[in-house]
Design a protein that fits this description.
The protein is of the alpha/beta class.
């Protein structure tokens, strides 16, 4: 059974729904340069990509998003109708500091989030804010080389202090970086590094992580100095991993995969120190420890200011196989793996594994004993609008029901779970493909992949279902 003050809600990201990408003094972000289409990551990952916008060659759905910047009151009202207890959103860094390295913030950007937060509070919806969610100012990527540059610690600290001071009296729940461990596979999003500015070198990735770890700890310090009751967490992708069989080689490979992807960043951010296997990681990825800029003061900061809770996304599990030459691969949330014959997959090939969520929760809580917050989980699917305007997304209901049932089991196992915010509670631009057709929301937005549509909002069948789930604190799932 979930606790009485369980935080039911939904999650979004500024760069995927706000639009208004140059309104009211906002600067360009790295997300603004990322084109739409199934080849999005392939384009960003090519050696030629250098953060330039080419509107003759590509479309950029993020520029318009779903016009949440102008329609947020309508959207928050719909969230309130569902009964949201909280709403996870992010602050666009380049709305507050357009280039990222300014001394003074952009007041118009701050005012927008004042209004958004107040609109949430009007309905007794707790804001849950991600300080940086895949949208660092473009200037910091182009002129400073992204997070491998130590100067970004200072810029982020100024940004975090600005928003925490401005909103800390109204907002209790915060996260420092979205899916910080995603840089293992794609540092463009979280670290502002592509091949042309060093993203292809793991030496830079690990230096960028260190700089982010220090910046995150400084944000924790700022938050707790403002109000010791503020809760500030880290945020990772968690992908439960399995060995393909009982072969000890595969079991050992699975152990390493877990340490690397699922635990490395949280070991530092929760425990406040680098884990014992760090040297092995450096050796594996060709990182020269002597070339990393890590000071004793840094290590003291990490130890003194660990995060209060772990936020994580869970969409899928993956299988590790080191012994078979012929295996069928599958795609996933920034990472892939070997096909699991026991699981079904979404239309985009992501393997659906509710029981894996229970395992993930037990693994995380057993390792760290800090509260968990599932801040992303959901099913990307093509939704069909019927002639009468209804959208029967029972496949989404089934997906969410099974994952909530797994959450219940984990809570019964003794896991301390704070809340649950399914991803894309309203349809928005996909991060992985820049598409609108890959929909997650309880609320349908009339907009297609080419940017055509009225932007009108309408309720899917899952809207009323989730409303009942919240009303009954997760007891009514049918």
């Amino acid at each position: 059974m979930f606790k009485k003050d369980f935080l039911w809600g939904g999650a979004t990201a500024a760069n995927q729904l706000e639009g208004a990408y140059q309104a009211d003094g906002k600067g360009l972000s790295v997300a603004d340069t990322m084109p739409g289409g199934k080849q999005r990551f392939q384009v960003i990952g090519s050696p030629e990509f250098d953060w330039e916008i080419d509107e003759e060659k590509y479309v950029y759905p993020n520029h318009r998003g779903i016009d949440h910047y102008d329609r947020f009151r309508e959207d928050i009202a719909l969230f309130a109708e569902m009964g949201f207890k909280c709403y996870r959103f992010s602050i666009a860094w380049s709305r507050i500091f357009p280039k990222g390295d300014e001394q003074q913030p952009n007041e118009a950007g701050l005012k927008f989030y004042d209004d958004l937060i107040d609109e949430c509070l009007k309905y007794n919806i707790e804001p849950v804010i991600t300080i940086s969610h895949y949208e660092m100012p473009l200037h910091l990527a182009k002129e400073y080389g992204g997070w491998k540059n130590r100067q970004l610690i200072t810029f982020y600290e100024r940004f975090a202090k600005t928003v925490l001071t401005r909103y800390g009296k109204k907002v209790k729940y915060w996260m420092t970086f979205n899916e910080i461990n995603s840089a293992f596979h794609f540092p463009a999003l979280s670290q502002g590094m592509v091949i042309s500015n060093g993203g292809g070198e793991m030496q830079n990735v690990f230096q960028a992580w260190h700089n982010q770890f220090v910046a995150s700890s400084l944000a924790v310090k700022i938050a707790h100095d403002i109000d010791p009751d503020l809760q500030i967490g880290c945020m990772i992708i968690y992908a439960t991993t399995y060995s393909i069989d009982s072969n000890p080689i595969n079991q050992a490979a699975n152990l390493v995969q877990n340490q690397e992807f699922n635990f490395f960043c949280t070991d530092v951010q929760v425990r406040g120190e680098y884990p014992t296997y760090t040297k092995r990681l450096y050796n594996k990825f060709g990182v020269d420890q002597n070339e990393l800029e890590i000071t004793e003061e840094d290590l003291e900061i990490l130890k003194a200011y660990p995060v209060d809770y772990i936020g994580f996304s869970y969409y899928m599990s993956m299988v590790v196989d080191e012994t078979s030459e012929e295996t069928e691969g599958v795609s996933g949330n920034l990472l892939g793996g070997v096909k699991n014959p026991f699981l079904k997959a979404s239309e985009w090939g992501w393997q659906i594994d509710p029981e894996g969520l229970r395992i993930a929760m037990n693994e995380l809580y057993g390792r760290y004993q800090v509260p968990l917050f599932i801040v992303e989980n959901g099913l990307g699917a093509i939704d069909e609008v019927q002639p009468d305007g209804t959208i029967e997304d029972n496949y989404r209901i089934d997906y969410l029901r099974e994952h909530i049932e797994a959450m219940k089991k984990a809570v019964d196992d003794g896991v301390d779970l704070m809340g649950y915010t399914p991803w894309g509670c309203i349809d928005l631009v996909s991060a992985s493909t820049g598409e609108m057709s890959k929909r997650y929301g309880f609320i349908y937005v009339d907009l297609d992949d080419e940017g055509n549509g009225t932007l009108d909002r309408s309720k899917k069948a899952s809207f009323d279902w989730y409303k009942k789930v919240i009303e009954t604190n997760g007891e009514e799932l049918n």
